[in-house]
Specification:
alpha/beta, 6-stranded mixed beta sheet, 16 strands, about 30% helix, binds aspartic acid
């Protein structure tokens, strides 16, 4: 059993500095070597370390590409991959890897920590050990191992900002894998995708600004798919439709998702051809939009790809 550990940064490998926690080379690496020396990690592993290590708040789709490239390059050299990552954008990265690694045949386990390995009673050590163990006997796909739970890569969300048990995921009957007969990595390009949330008194002109310039929009609607049906918002969504840019609607509620057509106040979404994101998380919808924009060229191909589940991202 051989695992490639890809260390990207995040709290797990941070130290205290004058400005607060910041990544430091050697923290995760030393812990892994110590755990192996103690016999707590079974099998062999190699390390691939990002330069520089980052707080995941600074992650971009180019960082997703870097991780996906490491996995693709070594897909046949290792039995599994463990990715250590900051928790703030971990759910975006796990979704992005799921879409990008088509036909993945190995487990990819993302993990991190709420308290650095350099602090007493941290959760990093346990999460690291659990991730290494899960990598050994887990189905192919992109998973998040955190606080004793193995979670679906496109259904997961960070739901607590300080507790060790910081992640949860909605159930899914589909594996977190982009099925295909052959393994193939897709790259993320450079697209502008704002995530806009419906609010009381939402300004149509801000949405209009985005509709005129963005490459796609994630619209976080209320409950089962409503938003203020003001004339300027209707106008803005029509602009997006005329420009052929995809707009995908998801719910601000953590569970249940949207059901377009339930309320008259949501009818403008259907009239403007907004894509039904069902119960996808905003993180998965954002990563999928980036993936679809990067992979497909025409508005129709993009709409078709967004409307169907690729990796169990909606039920
Ligand atoms: N800000 C940190 C990060 O996302 C938080 C963490 O890792 O828990 O890199």
């Amino acid at each position: 059993m051989k695992t490639l550990v890809i260390h990207t940064g995040g709290t797990i490998g941070m130290v205290q500095t004058e400005k607060g926690f910041a990544p430091k080379a050697g923290v995760v690496e030393d812990c892994l070597i110590e755990l192996q020396y103690q016999g707590q990690i079974k099998g062999r592993f190699d390390l691939s370390v990002a330069m520089p290590l980052i707080d995941s708040a600074n992650a971009t789709p180019q960082d997703w590409n870097w991780i996906a490239t490491r996995i693709a390059k070594h897909h046949s050299d290792y039995d599994a991959f463990v990715v250590t990552h900051g928790t703030d954008t971990l759910a975006y990265t796990s979704s992005a890897l799921c879409f990008a690694l088509e036909g993945l045949q190995k487990p990819v386990i993302l993990t991190g920590a709420m308290l650095p390995l350099t602090e007493p009673q941290n959760d990093g050590r346990r999460n690291l050990l659990d991730a290494m163990a899960t990598a050994r006997d887990c189905a192919a796909g992109v998973w998040v191992q955190f606080a004793g739970q193995k979670l679906h890569g496109t259904r997961v969300r960070k739901s607590h900002s300080s507790a060790f048990d910081a992640f949860n995921a909605s159930p899914s009957s589909a594996l977190p894998i982009h099925q295909a007969a052959e393994f193939r990595r897709h790259s993320y390009g450079d697209f502008n995708v704002p995530v806009l949330g419906a609010t009381p008194g939402m300004s149509g002109c801000v949405v209009q600004f985005c509709a005129q310039r963005a490459d796609g929009i994630v619209l976080r609607c209320y409950g089962s798919g409503t938003l203020p049906d003001s004339p300027d918002l209707t106008e803005a969504l029509k602009t997006a439709q005329q420009r052929g840019i995809p707009v995908i609607a998801v719910s601000q509620c953590a569970e249940g998702g949207i059901s377009l057509g339930t309320y008259a106040a949501g009818s403008l979404l259907q009239e403007a051809g907004v894509i039904d994101g069902r119960d996808a998380t905003a993180e998965a919808a954002y990563a999928k939009l980036q993936y679809v924009l990067s992979r497909h060229q025409t508005p129709k191909a993009r709409r078709d790809a967004l409307a169907q589940p690729l990796c169990g991202e909606f039920s």
